[in-house]
Write a structure and sequence with these properties.
The protein is α+β, with helices and mostly antiparallel strands and 66 residues long. Helices cover 41% and strands 15% of the residues. It has a two-stranded parallel ribbon. Helix 1 packs parallel to helix 2.
Amino acid sequence: MMSATALFIFAALAGVRADVSDSTTSNPSVLVYTRTVGFRHDSIPTAIDVLRAEGPYHGLNFSFTE
């Protein structure tokens, strides 16, 4: 099951993938920036794991940084 954060990111990127022609371009790359100050939500590491695992299936390359 996807975390709410990962689900939100996939929903936001749905239009990006729909506009890319598989035959002429490579998979889009997405930078996910997760820096927090103070409170860090428990779902962030889960979302990163899900995006890393599911990105190739959806034709997206994710890079993660804080």
